[in-house]
Amino acid sequence: MSAVAPHRRLRKTGWYIASAAIVVAFLFPVYWIFAVSLKTPREIFKFPPAWYPATPQFNNFLVLFRDGDVWSIWNSFVLASTSTVVAMILGIMCAYSIVRFKTGGENLAIWIISQRLLPPIAIVFPIFLIYSKLGLTDTYQGLILLYTAFALPYVIWLMRGYIQEVPMALEESALVDGASRWQILWFVVIPVTRNGIFATAVFAFIFSWNEFLFALVLTRTEVITFPVQVSQYFGAQSTFWAKISAMSVLGTLPIFFAVAAFQRYLVRGITLGAVKG
Amino acid sequence: MSGSASGRADDTRLFKYGLIAPATFVMVLVAVFPLIYLIVVSFQRISLSDDITSFSGLVNYARIFSDARLWDAVLHTLLITVIALPIELVLGMLLGYHFLPDRPFKRLLVALLIIPSVISPMVAGSMWRLMFDDRYGPINQIISWFAGERISILWTINIAWAYPAIIITDVWQWTPFMFIILMAALANVDQELLDAAAIDGASGWRTFLEVTLPAIRPVMMIALLIRGLDLIRLFDSVWQLTRGGPGSATETISIYAYIRGFQEFDTSYIAAVVVVLAILFSVGLVVVLKRMAIAR
Fold it and tell me: I need a labelling partner for B118 at 20 to 30 A (CA). Which of A202, B57, B199, B218 fits?
């Protein structure tokens, strides 16, 4: 017995050391971009590279504000939050109908999920031509419509799973009490699935926030989003390291908070509900 | 009496279709309608120099077969997929096993490990572009330490190193995704079956092949499917790392189509290319899904 205990403790320590090493290895690039964003321009181009900023400073971020680059963060925020709200409202309605009334049967559900399998490059050309004719390029409305449509299959699919878990008895008793269908959806189903709704919304937001191809094609100056802004810092002549790093940090921080808040729903969220986690 | 009952049925019908109508409308508007328009454009002759919208037959489709750059891009995409996907699967599985036991701080470690998979692929590409910089990036520096002499690899510029750079970036970003799915699947394997195998004296490897693998197969297949589909459409991180260069040596299908369509404005031809690739893609997908259904 006493011989086993030290052995077990050793194993446990080994596990923590290995785990820490894995996490450090995977987070090093994240650390590096944070470190670069806090370095002075002189330090960024030091050789051999400095492993940490000697005197951390926020000038690289101030430059983003001075030059107006941070507008791209604002644009991303407006686009992602508006499309998320619209997609959640339409998606919850659709998911509820599919679960409770089997509307459209299997075919509708499969058609909806197949929307997500479609490679975006397949529709980016016709969308660009149509948008150019309608004057929708470089507008909030244009991208909001797209991001809503891209988020919908995801929202419907995940909310379908959450609504299926609502006990039938709960809705039936409300129906007996004389509640209308809308009232049941609003006062029974939505409050019960609250956590699932928040988690789904966070993921829908992240997907819109990270979207690049359509933003690249459809924005010029007015509604440039943060991934497009970052992509423009890699020029043919010069690479703007300070701006790349500072902008990447600004664009990544909201995601960190979202993940921290919704850790519990992470697995289910990124697997489209395939794993209940 | 019967009037009110049928009234109620009508209400329900109105309600249930009313609920799906707005979402369906938006999806049709953005996915189905453009696909139809894409096919129309592929039969026209819209480009930088021409804007001929009359029907011009199969001119665009005829060009596809002699377009070496296109088929190179298809090969590049498949190459990246067949290398990155197995690496992500194996690493994800190993990490899944490692983090399987419940220990204090496990949740925190797992949450930290998932970070690469939730950040923007554009940012991931930027991070690794800085990491791989031949002079100011830490990768060459670390390699130099081990080599004991100054090593200067031109990661994103030299063709031989650009692919490793692209694959490392993808593996770094998506291994955590594989890991978190596989860990959840491994945790759901019936412990009694594993115990029974251990009592029968089965080796760890045999237990894995005969008990664990069949149990996690459905979830594993979904993970591979999601990742495979993402790799086929790979764009953001490669765009940031190499812009498809040097020349067109690292162009994926998406990058090829973007450059040809939006920078060289060969619009109708690229529409035809996309139609053909979409058909090939759909056929491939149906075959894979059928196989998955059988495997299940």
Answer: B218
Q: Å from A118 to nearest chain B CA?
A: 8
**Pairing status of strand B45-46 against strand B51-52:** antiparallel
Q: Which residue of B has its CA nearest to A121?
A: B254
B80 falls within a domain: yes
Q: Among the listed ranges A42-51, A67-76, A157-166, B50-59, which one has the minimum average pLDDT value? A: B50-59
Choose among A16, A49, A94: nearest Cβ to B20: A94
Q: What is the CATH number of the domain that holds B246?
A: 1.10.3720.10
Q: Is B24 a member of any domain?
A: no
Are A125 and B126 a contacting pair at CB < 8 A? no
Residue B293, chain A, CB below 8 Å: the answer is: no
Q: Does residue B242 fall inside a structural domain? A: yes
Domain count for chain B? 1
**What per-residue confidence (pLDDT) applies to B72?**
93
A100–B contact, CB cutoff 8 A: yes
CB contacts < 8 Å between A and B, how many? 252
Q: How far apart are alpha carbons B239 and B245 in whole angstroms?
A: 9
For residues A43-57, average pLDDT: 86
pTM of the model as a whole: 0.89
- Note the helical H segments in chain B: 2-27, 33-42, 59-64, 68-98, 106-113, 115-118, 121-131, 138-147, 159-187, 191-199, 204-207, 213-232, 236-241, 253-258, 267-295
CATH architecture label of A63-270: Orthogonal Bundle (1.10)
Touching check for B177 and chain A: CB below 8 Å?
yes
Write out the residue range of the structural domain in which residue B189 sits: 66-295
Where are the domains positioned within chain A?
4-57, 63-270
Residue pLDDT, tens place only, B66-107: 899 999 999 999 999 999 999 999 999 999 999 998 888 888
Is residue B135 in a domain? Answer: yes
